[in-house]
Amino acid sequence: MKKNSIFPALLILLSVFASAVWASEAEDNYKNFCWQCHGMTGNGMGVNVQDMSVQPRDHTSAKSMGGRSDADLFKVIKEGGLAIDKSVLMPPWGGTFSDEEIHDLVTYLRKLCQCR
Ligand code: HEC
Question: Which end of the chain has fewer CB atoms surrounding its CB within 10 Å, N or C?
Fold first, then answer.
């Protein structure tokens, strides 16, 4: 390996590391705050579901998640269900997460549904 070729290699390593940390942070947030309703795997089968009049969204369904823009997802997470004419049972998270963390949650949701 040539002496100066180590820097790009280091950069790649660093960014792989950074994205691994980032991914697990959004996943952790989801598994701490969203699973009760949306389920551990995001399939909408959380423990609260049997008592709820409106069922939480199945976040793994490309069919129901594909119709939403990132901006809508951001808005509903930050401001709650009512913000996009959905149920008040979806709570607002703007007081819990920073905008950046909400963006990361949106990215995580896209990973769950494997849709745009
Ligand atoms: C107390 C239960 C509850 C918790 C906790 C909860 N949700 Fe929800 N969520 C709902 C319900 C119910 C709906 C469906 C609302 C509707 O269809 O009218 C919903 C809908 C959504 C939607 C809209 C999907 C769509 O397009 O219709 C998103 C996005 C979402 N939740 C993300 C999250 C995230 C991210 C968290 C954690 C930070 C979370 N939710 C925590 C109950 C919950």
Answer: N
Mean pLDDT, each 10-residue run in order, the chain (116 residues): 70 66 81 95 92 93 93 97 95 97 96 93
- Total domains in the chain come to 1
User: Is 53 inside any structural domain?
Assistant: yes
**Model's pTM, two decimal places?**
0.85
CA distance 6 to 103: 33
Say if 16 falls within a structural domain.
Answer: no
19 Cα–ligand 1 center, Å? 25
Region of 40 please: left (phi>0), alpha (psi -120 to 50) or beta: alpha
Task: Provide the domain limits for residue 40.
Answer: 22-113
Mutate to test the pocket of ligand 1, among 35, 54, 57, 69 (most ligand atoms within 8 A of CB): 57
- Does 51 fall in a domain? yes
